[in-house]
Amino acid sequence: MKFGNHSVLYMMIRSAVLLLVSAVLVYSLYYTVRMISYTGDDPRKNSRDYSYHVAVVGEYNNSVILNQICRGALSLSDEYNVVIDNLVPKTGAGTMKLQTLVDYAASMSVDGIIAYIPDERVNVNSPVTVDGKRIPVIMIGNDNPETQAVSYIGINSYELGKKMAETLALFVPDGGKVLAVYDSSSTAALYGRILSSLRETVVGTGSFRIENTDVRKRGGISAEDEIRDAIRFQPDIRAVICLSSDNTVRVAENIVDLNLAGKITVIGFGETPQTKEFLNKGILSAIISQQPEDMGRQAVRSLFEYITTGNTNDYTTVTVRVITGKKHGSA
């Protein structure tokens, strides 16, 4: 009788545990779905069947560029008969990791994934469908050799450095001290190549002195304070070159706070609503745009080349463009 009671108790505990685990799994899936915004939903996909399903994934803090990438990808949806979902967390709450989003996309049995990875240290495991089929990944942002992506879409760092040098010479023809602002905590190798090209291009003129300001987190000093001190305590600075959209905004805000608008040339990076607003106000002289919509289109082309032939270029670069104020036009 005692044995029977223990058996009943064991079965009750086991059922309770299974119920709890199931509830956690259901909640996790619900939480994932709630945290993701299907900004890629297109009403056309309800009017007819599509042959393919592709997901664009990335983390919340990169949502602006991800939406631009997705717009470019969506422009080819009819050409390739594909549904494209933009899986972007609605908020930064919980800081959903990229691998979680990739795994979620895999659970949807998509035919391909376009992933934006701005941090060269992030490694995404190759996803598979529920039936074990490998899902091809096209990577945009940073080329991590450890990530099992079939192709990388990005900018040529050497050409970007040259473009920055040409833009600098256009706005500061007399030369002088230039501050290059970057964050080595995520993309040290990429920034190193850009700065090397920048220096190599301007060295022939002999009129520019490039000084680096690395704003990676250290010693409790914020990036904003690092930038403010670098500008405030070097009154001979003629120009500032920014290597990311975040640092472009930080530099622009400090230029305004220090009442230096129009006195220091600022060349920003990344075409976002914020950077374009600073350009329109004259705080920025120019913006170097990596053209994320072009990246989205190229990612779709590379993905379908792989889907149909089993091969595609390992590395494809897109050209950058310079956006300037009305006085100079755009290049």
Q: Main β-sheet, in a few words?
A: 7 strands, mixed
Amount of beta strand: 15-25%
Overall mean confidence score, pLDDT: 81
Order of helices and strands: HEEHHEHEEEHEHEHEHEHEHEE
Q: What portion of residues is helical?
A: 40-55%
Termini, distance in Å? 87 Å
- Counting DSSP E segments of at least 2 residues, the number of strands comes to 13
Instruction: Give the overall silhouette.
Output: elongated
Our Rg estimate from Cα atoms comes to 24 Å
With helices defined by DSSP (H or I, 4 residues minimum), what is the helix count?
Answer: 10
What structural class do the secondary elements suggest? alpha/beta
Q: How is the largest sheet built, in terms of strand order? A: 1-3-2-4-5-6-12
Low-confidence stretches: 21-47
